[in-house]
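Bumping my old thread because nobody answered last time. Still need a sequence for this structure:
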């Protein structure tokens, strides 16, 4: 059972969304599974950490919130035990998809595959939920489709607009869906990449999807894959934005409950291993290939509490392995810097207690993050050209999912370095 760790502050009161508000904090403890309403079992606590994208200016401070992972033993949905108000996390967002060549290629090939599979034409409307800087929609637009994005972060919505991608600057809701339906019609395709795991009320989200989708339309979502997180020990992908951690099993349960049919689930090699899930708005059983995947997961015990308690024990070991590895380098007076001020980096750094005593600075090519400090650990984020001036002994690849792209770029621009990949076990890569 979860312990009650609801943050209380002075001046507590409840707002209409059920968030318990203090002067500075907005957090709600999840009492039951967000999908089926049953009791949750706590499996892992990563302590209290700041929000993963709450980079601060020098002199500023940030708040921390409990970060706990739970399993619903009834429908197998793995989820956080607390929900931070999305207004705090998504109204100004520093993460942009366009920084990485890997994502540019991934989204271009995703758009190409879906245009061909669904026979999309210039009459087709594609709506992307959480459209970020408009990268995915840009690919659909190039292929001739009509596109509209929905993006709550005003800084990102204006980047997308400047790039010619019509974007509604708001959360996905019945209001935004109605605006699109009236102005552009219903959607042939709704995409949501790295968004579904951020959704608190899945039922409301899917009921709005149904109002926006044409009868024969398709919803395609991509989410990080829970089985990969466990296999590769990528516990750093646990942070407050990621409310749910999906397997094929829990995904099918969610859609079946909401009377939608999962027609395919494919593993895609992005963000360390993700699922691409294709869904139709009809109440039907998933096809045999999907059922087979679900069966394989139950054979691997993805529905069992022991799987997660073992994972939690291995997380503790990963932390001590990494600290030992970095300490041995620092004991030789050699320098370590990070590459990629990713959101997940901040779980790793905060949970392991890695601050400037280990990592002098982190380089990142996203100008929105440069000049800021990492939340909690206050490590400066600098442009990557710093590497050529400072020549550190080791580069800790915090965006390990993009390690190949980063190592190639560093070698091309700044010569040879020793890279450390932190997970599942710290190791050196040339
Ligand atoms: P990256 C994001 O998490 C955010 P993050 C989000 N919350 C989500 O759900 C997950 O993805 C799945 C930098 N970089 O993509 C850019 C360079 O500087 O692994 C980024 O700051 N130069 C929506 O933030 C970071 O690394 C480069 O050449 O964990 C990568 O972050 C490259 C390739 C990357 O996601």
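Sorry it took so long. Here it is:
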């Amino acid at each position: 059972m979860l312990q009650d760790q609801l943050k209380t502050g002075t001046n507590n009161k409840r707002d209409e969304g059920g968030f318990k508000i203090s002067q500075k904090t907005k957090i709600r403890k999840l009492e039951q599974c967000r999908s089926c309403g049953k009791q949750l079992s706590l499996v892992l606590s990563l302590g209290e950490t700041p929000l993963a994208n709450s980079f601060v200016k020098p002199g500023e401070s940030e708040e921390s919130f409990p970060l706990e992972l739970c399993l619903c033993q009834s429908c197998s949905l793995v989820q956080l035990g607390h929900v931070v108000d999305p207004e705090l996390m998504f109204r100004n967002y520093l993460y942009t998809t366009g920084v990485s060549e890997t994502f540019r290629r991934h989204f271009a090939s995703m758009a190409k595959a879906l245009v061909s599979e669904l026979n999309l034409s210039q009459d087709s409307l594609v709506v992307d939920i959480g459209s970020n800087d408009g990268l995915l929609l840009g690919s659909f637009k190039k292929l001739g489709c009509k596109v509209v994005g929905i993006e709550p972060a005003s800084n990102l919505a204006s980047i997308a607009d400047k790039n010619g991608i019509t974007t509604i600057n708001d959360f996905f809701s019945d209001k935004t869906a109605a605006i699109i339906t009236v102005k552009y019609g219903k959607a042939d395709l709704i995409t949501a990449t790295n968004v579904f795991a951020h959704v608190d009320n899945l039922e409301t989200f899917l009921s709005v999807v149904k109002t926006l989708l044409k009868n024969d339309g398709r919803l395609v979502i991509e989410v990080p894959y829970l089985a990969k997180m466990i296999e590769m020990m990528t516990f750093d992908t646990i942070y407050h934005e990621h409310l749910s951690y999906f397997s094929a099993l829990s995904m099918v349960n969610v859609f079946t409950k909401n009377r939608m049919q999962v027609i395919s689930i494919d593993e895609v090699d992005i963000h360390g291993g993700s699922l691409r899930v294709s869904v139709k708005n009809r109440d039907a059983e998933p096809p045999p290939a999907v059922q087979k995947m679900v069966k394989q997961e139950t054979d691997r015990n993805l529905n069992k509490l022991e799987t997660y308690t073992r994972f939690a024990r291995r997380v503790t070991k990963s932390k001590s392995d990494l600290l030992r590895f970095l300490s041995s380098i620092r004991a030789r007076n050699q320098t370590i810097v990070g590459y990629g001020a990713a959101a997940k980096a901040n779980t790793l750094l905060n949970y392991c207690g890695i601050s400037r005593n280990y990592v002098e600075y982190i380089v990142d090519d996203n100008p929105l993050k440069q000049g800021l400090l990492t939340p909690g650990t206050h490590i400066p984020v600098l442009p990557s050209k710093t590497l050529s001036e400072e020549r550190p002994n080791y580069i800790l690849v915090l965006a390990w999912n993009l390690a190949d792209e980063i190592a190639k770029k560093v070698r091309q621009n700044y010569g040879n370095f020793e890279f450390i990949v932190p997970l599942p076990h710290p190791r050196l890569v040339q």
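The chain has 13 helices and 21 strands. Let me know if any region looks off to you.
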